[in-house]
Specification:
Elements: E1 4-9, H1 20-28, E2 31-35, H2 36-39, E3 49-53, H3 58-70, E4 74-79, H4 88-98, H5 101-104, E5 107-111, H6 116-124, E6 125-126, E7 132-136, H7 144-156, E8 160-164, H8 174-183, E9 191-196, E10 204-209, E11 222-226, E12 232-236, E13 239-244
Parallel strand pairs: 1-4, 1-5, 2-3, 2-4, 6-13, 7-8
Antiparallel strand pairs: 8-11, 9-10, 9-11, 12-13
Length: 254
Amino acid sequence: MSSRLTVIGLGPGNADQVTPEASRAVAEARFFFGYKPYLDRLDLRPDQTRVASDNREELSRAKDALAMAAQGHNVAVVSGGDPGVFAMAAAVCEAIEAGPAEWRAVDVSMLPGITAMLAVAARIGAPLGHDFCAISLSDNLKPWDLIELRLLAAAGAGFVIALYNPISKARPWQLGRAFECLTAILPGTTPVVFGRAAGRPDERIEIFLLADADSEKADMATCIIIGSPETRIIKRGERPALVYTPRSAAGPRK
């Protein structure tokens, strides 16, 4: 028996944005572990089995998948976006490091997918055209003080910032607080892109200035891209505006 576990990124939700490599892995796997909305994207055969779990059960999901794979099965762990960006690839690695020796013998592979910030960026222009970073606003696995420190450091260094997990019912205040922190560093004219469900039928892409950014316009399906001081908006009459960050930078401001 061949013990195999593949961590698959399904992209932002548009079937056309699933890679051929990921599609082949889905066709080959027998057991699929993941958050139910991601598993529901798959068109599985009768001989393939879904094992759904809650969104906050990543480590438990990884352990269950590894245990199944170690028994000789071909197992897939499914993520939205890219599994290596705030998703299941890290949880699988954590489980292997802390788990039994037989889990290290499993043939493990991570298949990339289009992550939310890339999907949103492509819909609006090229906001990630120069240096950028990604920060999750969820404080489930790290303290909020650390999140604020990273926001201020990134903005002060001139990075474009992609915000993941910006707001939820349990965390309704954090995005507003993040905007307050960034306003202390960045000009109020800095472009901010709210990209919800990029590539899906319910897509909503909106451009604001930092001074006018409203946290209530976001939910957990939204990825927010906050420009650097160099990021620009190109207005094009009746055509949608383009947001881009030039490939060159002026250097530190003194």
